[in-house]
User: What shape does this take?
Amino acid sequence: MSRRTSRPRRPAVPPAGPPRITPATPCPCGLQAAYGDCCGRFHAGAAAAPTCEALMRSRYAAFVVQDAGYLLRTWHPSTRPPAVDFDPAMRWTGLEILETTEGSAFHSTGTVTFRARYTDDGRPDSLHEKSRFVREQGAWVYEAAVFVE
Assistant: This one.
C-alpha cells in the first residue's frame, strides 16, 4: 500500500499593510518635505492644517498610511461615516492638486480639485474629485465631494 502525499500548500500571503512611512520618509502628499515635518505633524496632532489644501494633502497621506483616526477627526460631523475601511488591495501612488478655491486663513469654506492615483490589485487607476472643506470650531474639516469623472 502506498501513501499519497500532496505538495505542501503555500501559506496564504496576508494582505500587505500600509507602506512603511517614517518621519524621515518623503511625505506621500507630494510636497518636498519629510513626512514628520509635513503631514505627519497633522496626523500626530502637533498642528492643525492651516488651509484646506493642506488638509486635503494630509487626508490623502492619511489614506496612504491608513490613519483612520485622523480621517474621522477631520471629517465634518454631518457627513462623517462611523468608520473608515481600507481596501487591502488598494495602494495610493500619487496626488496632483489641480485647483484650489478659497480655503485660506481668511476664508470659512474652500474647495480642492485633485487627482489621486492608485493601484487596485496592481491595476493603475485614478480618482478625480472636487472636495469641499469648511471650518468647524476654527479647524478645517472635509465636508463633501463631487466626483469629476
Notes: The first helix runs from residue 39 to 43. DSSP finds three helices and four strands in the chain. Confidence is low (pLDDT under 50) at residues 1-14. The helical segments are 39-43, 52-65, 68-73.
